Amino acid sequence: MKQPPAYAIASVDHALRLATILQLEGSLSVADAAERLGVARSTAHRLLAMLVYRDFAVQDDTRLYRAGPVLELASHSQSAVSRLRQVALPHLRGLVDALGETVNLTVRTGGTARFIACVECDQALRVGSREGMVFPAHETTAGLLLLADLTDAELDSLHADAEAPAMDELHRELAKVRRNGFALNQGRSERGVVAVGVPVRSADGTAIAGVSVSMPSVRYDRRRLRPIVAILSAAAAALQHDLDG
Q: IclR-ED domain: from which residue to which, for each copy (predicted)?
């Protein structure tokens, strides 16, 4: 798992997070940006102004900011991710209340997994937000769930350059995920962290995202696995219902 640099620059991190939000989700107001980053509106305004200056953002006639020429994606892609995140957030907050741990929503693009939403718990020792970050899909809990939805041929095509022994192991792991209907990640992504996830499916049954809960390994009790999976599955089903609606 990626670790923050020893001398992180908060303003740069904030600007990059805003750029990611604009690219994936579409338009954003100054107030929205301030709320997402947890900063003052004046700070959010300065960050957005710099993104506009460097063509990472543009401001329209309604004073909303959207992705500029450097970041612009197809509008349907933005709206799909934005709607998924918007519909999912109440369910993620409910999961944090029920489980007392940090919860994430992740989508897959090719061989990578992107965290598009995170709600942190309020415990002093907790797993921090990964929102906006991208990792190899096979290294993340939700990424495994989404890879498990592929056929063997699709998986091999996606990892055409991977070594055969590594692919054999991945095939076995994904077969286990398919049988169980959930993924358990014990230190795979980050030492000292345990995560459990289930897929979120569209109306036709395709896995479109993964919802997962992450916790310090010192708080994980294997006897809680089945109850955790049940709570996650209920939330994923409710989210699917809301998306279909």
A: 72-245
Instruction: Examine the domain organization and report whether 114 and 203 are in the same domain.
Output: yes
For the residues 92-111, what does the mean pLDDT come to? 96
Tell me the C-alpha distance between 189 and 228, whole Å: 19
> pLDDT tens across 191-241, in order?
899 999 999 999 999 999 999 999 999 999 999 999 999 999 999 999 999
Q: What is the CATH number of the domain that holds 34?
A: 1.10.10.10
- Phi, psi at residue 202, to the nearest 5°? -85, 180
Tell me how far apart the alpha carbons of residues 57 and 204 are, in angstroms, rounded to a whole number.
Answer: 35
The DSSP secondary-structure symbol of 127 reads P
C-alpha closest to that of 144 among 121, 169, 162: 169
Q: Which two tokens stand for residue 82?
A: 């934005």
**Residue 145 sits in the same domain as residue 33:** no
- Among residues 146, 148, 228, 136, the alpha carbon closest in space to that of 189 is found at 136
- The CATH number of the domain where 117 resides is what? 3.30.450.40
Report the pLDDT averaged over residues 151-165: 85
| pTM of the model as a whole | 0.73
Please report the pLDDT score of residue 106 as a whole number: 96
In this prediction, residue 4 carries a pLDDT of 65
Tell me, yes or no, whether 93 lies in a domain.
yes
- Sequence-distant (≥ 6) Cβ neighbours of residue 102 within 8 angstroms: 96, 118, 119, 120, 121, 126, 127, 128, 129, 213, 214, 215
